[in-house]
Amino acid sequence: MMLVVAVLATGGLITSAAFNTVDRSGMRDAGRLMDRYADDLSAGVSDRAAHYGDILHVLAAAVGAQSSLFSDDYARLTAGLESARLPGVAGISFVVPATTAQLGTVQQNWRARGATGLMLRPAPGKAEHAFVIFDRAFGGNAVVPGLDVTHIPQLDNALRRAWQGHTLAVSSAFHLVRDQKLPEQLRQSSIVFAEPIYTTQGSALPDRFAGWIVMSVRGQDFLSQILLDRGQGAIQASVTESDENGAVLTAVRPGQRAQQGSLTRHRTLFIGQRRWQITMWPTTRLLESTDRGMSWLTLAAGAVLTLLLAALTGILAGSRSRALRKVDQATAALRRDIAQREHVEARLREREQQLQHLAFHDPLTGLANRALFYDRLTHALTARPERLVGLLFIDLDGFKQVNDELGHHAGDTVLRAVADRLRVALRAGDTITRFGGDEFAIILDGLATAAEARTTAERVIADVQVPIDVAGTQARVSASIGIAISRAGAAADDLVRDADTAMYVAKSNGKNRYVEAGLLT
């Protein structure tokens, strides 16, 4: 009897310990899974916001490049934007600044440019205004032209941030003007992305501020699509403006939120000069996908096994001990083997990624090399032949002098600095290549007109000629650029040859300039 009691007591303790161990293991698995979903979701929010910012940046640059913007021009520039590819986007507006004294002039000017019947409605008590001139709505109500958006504090604050910071700004959450006709329960907490527009006044004058491109985004739709793509229905999330009034964007997918406070996750993102805190909670679906239910199965199995062991302990005591030792040893050996194999596989994957990167990128600047350049240029010319493809071939003027006077280390510093400036100056979809030595090449895919290539060349020339600090010494280089635009039947080598020839003409004509291949005689 004492032996049976001892077996029951020992079995009970072991079963309890196994239950706790398996339960903690299940919680760790759920935590790791929650961490993965949290990272994926925060990355998805960041990527989606960056994508919308890129769209606004390109659209602002296109509007700024217009010598005189008409309503037809704005409709053409926004015609390619589709609501299916812009989840949550309610509309994109063109907004211009004006003072009270300028109301008549601004109204008459934009009426003449196609804003028929435009009536500016300034907010009372303000000397400076911001009026909606053109609006492209996506599946909803359009904003009536002439609205002064400075009466909306959140939007007014975002416009001022964009103007003062010369870059994209995001507002805090509020209800959109275009949603005012919706029932109260259907209005979403929303935000706007605001991108400043600058027009070029010539090389001798600074760019002139001309207004904003404003994208209205409904928060629930914006986050829900990302949750659907990245969360797979396993989590719920909200975005909190932790630094301004605690405004919240919420996305709740179907499913019951699990009451597990330890699995709640927080991530902080910086979007458009604003700090977002994303809070994510697990649903019961996430817990069901882990092995947490095994803890109760372990408890039941342990209880049954304990009873059996108590009945058979006299007969099977020795065999049980030996069997358990062998199981433990085999399990430990298997775990060590699995861990070692996973470590080796991880190292192999990491090495493969490094080799892949080295095969297609320049080791000094990190830019694409010739192999990747020709692959992307050939793809751009053949995948969609109807699209304009521009090629800028760049040679640095004065680079040899920097090498001779300051040494090759200084030359490497200059090349890296030029590469960094090109990354900042160009669109995210453009391919920048170090062609060799002090030569660079840029593929401009999907140009609207050849003039965009010239505008890009001017921007590159201006950025490159800014002095570069090399250990306290100011190194100066400039850029001679040859431009070639794709034509019917042209191959990659044809475009490279034309751009290279144009570049040499630019160097012969005094350097620090660009020459377009199509204008050579």
UniProtKB/TrEMBL annotation:
Residues 387-519 form the GGDEF domain. The chain crosses the membrane at residues 294-317. It is found in: Membrane. Gene3D superfamilies: 3.30.70.270, CHASE domain. Keywords: Membrane, Transmembrane, Transmembrane helix. The keyword Membrane applies. The keyword Membrane applies. Pfam families: CHASE, GGDEF. Coiled coil: none annotated. InterPro entries: CHASE_dom, CHASE_sf, DGC-Regulatory_Protein, GGDEF_dom, Nucleotide_cyclase, Rev_trsase/Diguanyl_cyclase. Residues 122-227 form the CHASE domain. It comes from the Bacteria. PANTHER family: DIGUANYLATE CYCLASE DGCT-RELATED, SLL0267 PROTEIN. This is GGDEF domain-containing protein. It comes from Cryptosporangium minutisporangium.
